[in-house]
């Protein structure tokens, strides 16, 4: 059986598009201080840029870790991700490091898996970097944009 180069490249691109997404209940804790994450202070820190001190002050539904956040004060702190899985979509704001892919609040994985995060644990989803406004809710979109 012969396989064309285009078919091989397409298959590789499809495989590479899948990103590992897991969950951690720590990101559901609204009192979680950003000082416990690499995205606290520094020129790229969320406390510095927006004045957010804990998860509950961030005007977004879901936060979590990303493997793009490589170190303290990473320029990827505050990156918004769109996560698509089986026809469902959520947005997640990066506040922490993740070893592989994304590690999100349990509620986010529950939303993607119809309440089955605990049973499934890890999924392979399509993840896209999007603008910060996609993650923020309400009037906070405008405030965060002006502070940036």
UniProtKB/TrEMBL annotation:
Its main location: secreted. It is found in: Secreted. Residues 1-18 form the signal peptide. One of its GO terms (cellular component) is extracellular region. The lineage of its organism: Eukaryota, Fungi, Dikarya, Ascomycota, Pezizomycotina. Pfam families: Cerato-platanin (PF07249). Belongs to the cerato-platanin family. InterPro entries: Cerato-platanin, RlpA-like_sf. This is Cerato-platanin. Keywords: Secreted, Signal. It comes from the Eukaryota. The keyword Signal applies.
């Amino acid at each position: 059986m012969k396989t064309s180069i285009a078919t091989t490249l397409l298959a590789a691109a499809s495989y590479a598009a899948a990103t590992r997404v897991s969950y951690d209940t720590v990101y559901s804790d609204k009192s979680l201080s950003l000082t416990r994450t690499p995205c606290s202070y520094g020129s790229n820190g969320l406390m510095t840029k927006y004045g957010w001190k804990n998860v509950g002050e961030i005007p977004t539904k879901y936060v979590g870790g990303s493997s793009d956040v490589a170190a303290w004060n990473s320029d990827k702190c505050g990156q918004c991700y769109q996560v698509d899985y089986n026809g469902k979509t959520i947005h997640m704001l990066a506040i922490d490091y993740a070893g592989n892919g994304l590690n999100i609040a349990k509620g986010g994985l529950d939303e993607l898996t119809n309440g089955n995060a605990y049973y499934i644990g890890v999924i392979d989803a399509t993840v896209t970097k999007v603008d910060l406004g996609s993650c923020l809710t309400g009037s906070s979109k405008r405030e965060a944009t002006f502070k940036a």
